[in-house]
């Protein structure tokens, strides 16, 4: 066969091997560079196309030139420098156009065909321009069949190269792409050389230049490899840069930038992974107590420093943690291998470690953490584990902070019921689904009802009558107590104004309401809307509410007294009892807690407190009221001690209807 004879007989195999080496290396590098251009956009893609064109065009030209140097003809050979230079420019420009079309994303199939066709035709054009630069001292003839066949053998593998390079980035087919380009270059060259025949002219002899071609071939190969090596270096540098960028992006995606801890996403992946592997582990949720006050007092920079220091102490305390993550502003999480008993011990150690003061810059910051933990065995899925640990954290914070709490069966159900209760409470507040019951307050000396305490009642359509000790704390915790308190004030003043008597109405005000700037507006609005005289409204507050913000409470109470509203201290003796409160605050009444009234007949200490408070009230001009009166003996004792008023089931139970009549034992028991 003519092509095989041309390859074996008419070429120096040393040159052929050098050309094949250049072709193989160049094709592999070209495939990699072309794939990189497919992964980029804009100017970067143009840069990669240019680099691919330079590398591929040089590899094609060097392969052709070395093989041409190895072509053995019995005549003198020279090269036209202009056409030789033009052939390499054709190779670079043509392949660049082909690669640019081949990466088209709008019409990929058309791009593959046209781009691959241009690539193959550029190889053809480069070869035949180079052949015109090949000047021989002899008669040259061309075989049209082999010329046509060379074009086909160049174009079809080139199209296959573009298709495979676009479709496959790794594996066997990825290497097949480079093989197709090798086939296109080699097939074109040796088929085209089979079409080229030289007949020696008698009288002309070989000038002996063939031996010098070896040095030229090695030099051209070296230059070609340098050019291709430049492409390889660019690829490797970009690959390292991309790897570094991907690592940075991965770190940003899975780590908190402030503390360097993992983030919520990484934590979630860790939980899912441990569930999938069915490993024994626990989740600890760590909340920094009173973190907002640290920011407000020392500034956000100190707050950030505190979080970093806490993260460091966690690592020092639990160096073998599976994952330590920051999942919120002041909330962290720890995944810990092993049984729940170990997690409980670690949680206690963390609470103790975080109780030690932190030195943040020039500030000494005292802080603490609350921890809720749940073991893998308590939850059926990652979401359930997170919810259960969160429920345990809520219990830890509700129990006083600075402590750890483990999830126990039934807590999640209780938390879910609390959420449903909160939603229903909010709906009841929006629809006004509350009622006010009134319990009489009886004057001891006259035996008549001088006022009523307004007590809010919630009759839920599904639950029935919900006890106040269930929904009042919930309303205080979520802030709804402010609006609920406004409703009670408005309704109580409206009802009291309709009684047509001089009886007052007493309304309880919580610590949350006292801290609200809307309280005074609610009181003034309720009085104005109802037309109730201010002296017929009595505001009741507990000692605990006073201590929570004594300075602000003092201003609020002074404002209420200025309006003419009366003020009573409720449950006196059960909170942070201080005689300074009686001295400094503008009080009209002291309500002695039911615990002293009920036990005074059997407990000398309770009796002593009861006697002391009533005497103190007389001496400083503050009326006293005994709560929780349920027996005639208790009522007689209060009367003997000089208590001005009493309240309790003996005197009257809370009722939705107000009865204007003197108290009798029969009525009180009704």
UniProtKB/TrEMBL annotation:
<dbReference type="InterPro" id="IPR005330">
    <property type="entry name" value="MHYT_dom"/>
</dbReference>
<dbReference type="InterPro" id="IPR001633">
    <property type="entry name" value="EAL_dom"/>
</dbReference>
<feature type="transmembrane region" description="Helical">
    <location>
        <begin position="112"/>
        <end position="133"/>
    </location>
</feature>
<dbReference type="InterPro" id="IPR029787">
    <property type="entry name" value="Nucleotide_cyclase"/>
</dbReference>
<dbReference type="InterPro" id="IPR035919">
    <property type="entry name" value="EAL_sf"/>
</dbReference>
<keyword id="KW-1133">Transmembrane helix</keyword>
<keyword id="KW-0812">Transmembrane</keyword>
<dbReference type="InterPro" id="IPR052155">
    <property type="entry name" value="Biofilm_reg_signaling"/>
</dbReference>
<dbReference type="GO" id="GO:0016020">
    <property type="term" value="C:membrane"/>
</dbReference>
<feature type="transmembrane region" description="Helical">
    <location>
        <begin position="46"/>
        <end position="70"/>
    </location>
</feature>
<dbReference type="InterPro" id="IPR043128">
    <property type="entry name" value="Rev_trsase/Diguanyl_cyclase"/>
</dbReference>
<feature type="transmembrane region" description="Helical">
    <location>
        <begin position="15"/>
        <end position="34"/>
    </location>
</feature>
<feature type="transmembrane region" description="Helical">
    <location>
        <begin position="172"/>
        <end position="196"/>
    </location>
</feature>
<feature type="domain" description="EAL">
    <location>
        <begin position="418"/>
        <end position="668"/>
    </location>
</feature>
<dbReference type="Pfam" id="PF03707">
    <property type="entry name" value="MHYT"/>
</dbReference>
<feature type="domain" description="MHYT">
    <location>
        <begin position="11"/>
        <end position="199"/>
    </location>
</feature>
<dbReference type="InterPro" id="IPR000160">
    <property type="entry name" value="GGDEF_dom"/>
</dbReference>
<feature type="transmembrane region" description="Helical">
    <location>
        <begin position="145"/>
        <end position="165"/>
    </location>
</feature>
<keyword id="KW-0472">Membrane</keyword>
<feature type="transmembrane region" description="Helical">
    <location>
        <begin position="82"/>
        <end position="100"/>
    </location>
</feature>
<dbReference type="Pfam" id="PF00990">
    <property type="entry name" value="GGDEF"/>
</dbReference>
<feature type="domain" description="GGDEF">
    <location>
        <begin position="279"/>
        <end position="409"/>
    </location>
</feature>
<feature type="transmembrane region" description="Helical">
    <location>
        <begin position="216"/>
        <end position="237"/>
    </location>
</feature>
<protein>
    <submittedName>
        <fullName>Diguanylate cyclase (GGDEF) domain-containing protein</fullName>
    </submittedName>
</protein>
<dbReference type="Pfam" id="PF00563">
    <property type="entry name" value="EAL"/>
</dbReference>
């Amino acid at each position: 066969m003519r092509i095989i004879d041309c390859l074996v007989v008419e070429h120096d195999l040393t040159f052929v091997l050098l050309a094949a080496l250049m072709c193989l290396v160049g094709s592999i590098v070209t495939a990699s560079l072309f794939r990189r251009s497919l992964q980029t956009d804009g100017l970067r893609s143009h840069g990669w196309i240019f680099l691919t064109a330079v590398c591929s065009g040089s590899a094609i030209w060097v392969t052709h030139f070395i093989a041409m140097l190895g072509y053995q003809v019995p005549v003198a050979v020279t090269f036209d420098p202009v056409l030789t230079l033009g052939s390499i420019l054709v190779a670079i420009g043509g392949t660049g156009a082909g690669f640019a079309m081949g990466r088209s994303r709008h019409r990929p199939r058309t791009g593959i065909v046209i781009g691959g066709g241009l690539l193959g035709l550029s190889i053809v054009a480069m070869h035949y321009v180079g052949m015109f630069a090949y000047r021989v001292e002899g008669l040259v003839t061309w075989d049209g069949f082999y010329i046509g066949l060379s074009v086909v053998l160049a174009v079809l593998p080139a199209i296959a190269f573009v298709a495979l390079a676009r479709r496959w980035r790794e594996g066997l087919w990825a290497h097949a792409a480079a093989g197709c380009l090798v086939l296109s270059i080699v097939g074109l060259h040796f088929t085209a050389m089979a079409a080229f025949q030289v007949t020696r002219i008698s009288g002309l002899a070989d000038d002996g230049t063939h031996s010098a071609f070896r040095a030229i071939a090695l030099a051209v190969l070296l230059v070609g490899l340098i050019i291709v090596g430049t492409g390889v270096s660019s690829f490797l540098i970009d690959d390292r840069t991309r790897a570094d960028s991907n690592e940075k992006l991965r770190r940003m995606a899975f780590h908190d930038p402030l503390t360097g801890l993992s983030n919520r996403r990484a934590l979630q992946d860790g939980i899912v992974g441990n569930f999938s592997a069915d490993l024994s582990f626990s989740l600890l949720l760590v909340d920094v107590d009173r973190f907002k006050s640290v920011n407000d007092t020392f500034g956000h920079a100190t707050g950030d420093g505190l979080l970093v220091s806490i993260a460091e102490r966690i690592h020092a305390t639990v160096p073998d943690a599976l994952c330590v993550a920051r999942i919120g502003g002041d909330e962290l999480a720890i995944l810990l291998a092993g049984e729940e008993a170990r997690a409980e011990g670690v949680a206690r150690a963390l609470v103790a470690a975080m109780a030690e003061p932190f030195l943040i810059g020039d500030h000494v910051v005292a802080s603490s953490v609350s921890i809720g933990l749940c073991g893998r065995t308590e939850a059926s899925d990652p979401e359930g584990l997170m919810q259960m640990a969160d429920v345990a954290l809520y219990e830890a914070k509700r129990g006083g902070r600075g402590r750890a709490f483990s999830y126990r069966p039934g807590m999640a159900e209780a938390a879910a019921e609390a959420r449903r209760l909160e939603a229903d409470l909010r709906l009841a507040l929006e629809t006004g689904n509350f009622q006010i019951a009134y319990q009489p307050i009886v004057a001891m000396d006259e035996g008549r009802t001088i006022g009523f305490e307004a007590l809010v009642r919630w009759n839920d359509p599904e639950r029935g009558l919900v006890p106040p000790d269930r929904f009042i704390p919930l309303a205080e915790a979520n802030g709804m107590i402010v609006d609920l308190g406004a409703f009670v004030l408005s309704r109580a003043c409206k009802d009291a104004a309709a009684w047509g008597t001089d009886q007052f109405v007493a309304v309880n005000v919580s610590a949350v309401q006292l801290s609200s700037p809307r309280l005074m507006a609610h009181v003034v609005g309720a009085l104005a809307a109802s037309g109730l005289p201010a002296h017929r409204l009595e505001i009741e507050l507990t000692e605990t509410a006073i201590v929570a913000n004594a300075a602000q409470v003092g201003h609020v109470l002074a404002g209420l007294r200025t309006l003419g509203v009366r003020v009573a201290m409720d449950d006196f003796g059960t909170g942070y009892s201080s005689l300074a409160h009686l001295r400094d605050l503008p009080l009209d009444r002291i309500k002695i807690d039911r615990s002293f009234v009920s036990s005074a007949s059997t407990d000398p200490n309770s009796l002593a407190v009861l006697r002391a408070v009533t005497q103190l009230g007389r001496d400083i001009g503050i009326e006293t009221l005994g709560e929780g009166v349920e027996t005639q003996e208790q009522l007689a004792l209060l009367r003997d001690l000089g208590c001005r008023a009493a309240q309790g089931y003996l005197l009257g139970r809370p009722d939705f209807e107000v009865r204007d009549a003197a108290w009798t034992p029969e009525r009180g028991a009704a």
